[in-house]
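Human:
Class, as today's exercise, you are to examine the entry below, and be ready to discuss the fold:
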Amino acid sequence: MLRALKTVSELTIPHSAAAALAVVQNIKNIEYSEVKADHVEVHPATADTGTYDVRGHFAGIPWHNRFTYQLNEKGFHSTEVNPPADHP
C-alpha cells in the first residue's frame, strides 16, 4: 500500500535545530500533532528505539494501534506493528 505525505503549510519558529529535533523526537507529542490520537503511551527499548501505543478516534470511531519507532537525525521513523491488509 502506497502512502504519501503532503505539506499543507509551513511555519518558521526561531529556535535551534537541536531544540526542534528534541520536540519532534518526543514521541509522546504525537498526542498534540495527530488529530486522530487522543492518548499515546511510549515504551522505549533503547535510547533510540521502542514502541508506542496510540488510542483515539477516526471519523468518530474508536481506534488504536501499536507502532515501532527509531529516532534518527531528521526526527524518527515509525511503522505499524499490525498494518491493515492490502486486500478487502
